[in-house]
Amino acid sequence: MTDLIATTPGLYPLPDWAKDELSELKGHQKGDLISGDEGPEIVDAYQRARNDVVDAQTDAGLDRVVEGQLRWDDMLAHPLTVHDNVETGGIVRYYDNNNFYRDPQVQGELTASGDVAAELESVDAGPQQAVLPGPYSLSDLATDEHYGDEAAFLDAIADYLAGEIDAFPSHETLFLLEPSLVENAPDDDTQELASEAIDRVADATDADVVVHTYWGAIPEKTYAYLMDADVDAIGFDFVTDADESLYNINEYGTKNQIAMGVVDGQNTLVESPETIRDRADWVLKNAHEDFDQAYLTANTELFYLPVNKFEDKLQALGDAATLAEVDA
């Protein structure tokens, strides 16, 4: 019997009150907010907002609780944009989904900053799930002005993320978000390097590691290399491209755990628990694999949603896992 775990990839929308309060506070604060140099009032506002989204997950009955990444204005690029040796460049398009972020330009050695660890330490709930950009996606979103070589830069990003993880408090699961494996798949010379970088980051934690991909299915050759990484689960976007994702599983195999993106993180239509359960059951029945654990999750980050729809989707995920457990 597959153990179903309700969770999310994190990156939540700010509560409405926090948007207004933080906008006013940031407008009055002098200093470099991009580097994480926030005054006590801003820190307090983020903590109250963090408490709100943690409570929302707990109330929804999710099995893993994320910090929410409410400070990540630049989304997956955030861990670099707050680094001392990174210059944040101008606004660039975030993949092709009409979202934008500042271009992190790496100008010096990447050493662990402890920024993400500090966020995780401020969460008083569990079991906790940490969230990070995967090394390939983070290197894809950044500009290298220091290492001078694609392979060296990818290695440095992997070492940097592993160093960040070393400072993490205890966590049950780590989601590495790797949309670039789909959106800008590595070429023949980089596929093995990307898999090795993911493997190195995963080795930095004793938690279960999920490499979550989205905005489509992973290209076949990239997927085959990804299978070489010693991770516990690969995440698939069954909202955007269910058939091709299932093809990868059945053609090349997968891990004995799986993350199933069965809730649309960008659409305000709220799926019913029954719809979520049907999507998950379709995967479990058609995959030529028996899974020890299956994570029921959104296919993408959830920051695209209005807060009320975001909370409704959390509840639907929690309810869907309970339905499946009762009926399994």
Question: What features would you describe in this structure?
Answer:
- The structure is a single chain.
- This protein is of the alpha/beta class and 328 residues long.
- It has 12 helices and 10 strands.
- The chain is globular and about 50 Å long.
- It starts with a strand and ends with a helix.
- Residues 30-35 have low confidence and may be disordered.
Please count the beta strands (DSSP E, at least 2 residues each).
Answer: 10
Strand order of the largest sheet: 1-10-9-8-7-6-4
Q: What's the N-to-C terminus distance?
A: 8 Å
> How many strands, which pairing sense, and closed or not: the largest β-sheet?
7 strands, parallel
**Series of H and E elements:** EHHHEEHEHEHEHHEHEHEHEH
Q: By helix and strand content, what is the structural category?
A: alpha/beta
Average pLDDT score: 92
Overall helicity: 40-55%
Q: Tell me the strand percentage band.
A: 15-25%
Rg for CA atoms = 19 Å
Overall 3D geometry? Answer: globular
